[in-house]
Amino acid sequence: MTPDQIPLRSSSALECRNCGEVAPLDVHFCPQCSRILALGRHGDYFAFFGLPRRLKVNAPDLERRFRELSRQFHPDYFYNAPPAERLASLERSSYLNDAYRVLRNPVARVEYLLGLEGLAPTRSDEARTAKVPPSLLEEVFALNEELDEIRELRESGVDPSALRARLATARKPIERRRDEHERQLQELSTQWDERQERVTLEALRERMLERNYINNLLATIDREAGAIGNS
User: Fold this and answer.
1) CATH architecture designation of domain 14-104
2) N or C: at which end does the chain have fewer Cβ atoms within 10 angstroms?
3) Nearest to residue 150, comparing CAs of 139, 142, 158?
4) Cβ count within 10 A of residue 41
């Protein structure tokens, strides 16, 4: 392992409240008495599903695991169980749903992994999204000029269909940038899965911040299109 690589964090353990047996964090039922374990302070969504901390997830396998765990945790199975076990089933069912929503979405997986590895965007990072990323200066400058002209033409009563056509043309380079960022996210995700280097996570965070800015640009175009439709 090189100094730039990140070792996977070791899991802690859970103690069964019924028999006192200690179980690994990714085990849902006590290996000694088979009672459902309280959720406690769980490690992460990946471990909950019994998956490695990777960004490429096999969707059918994830869904299969989700359905299996959903059946195991279903509150109906714990209707006559002690209150602690009923609560545990509800907690695990809720956590399972949250984990599934995140892990089945590629972008949400990246955001979640960055948080797990201590690279979640900070306030200063979020403030940066209000500024134009250097790599997007040319596109943003051209878009702002075009939007200013479109607004002036709209106010002067120009045919809305012509303005919508100009907006569609202005949108294309931003969409191409978005598509390029999606490709980069895929490539960096593969790199992380293969080498697990911190530099890859840092690059992923930069791409995510730029992606957020691009989405804000597209939202601005959509708002202008709405204004044209209401004029």
Assistant:
1) Orthogonal Bundle (1.10)
2) N
3) 158
4) 7
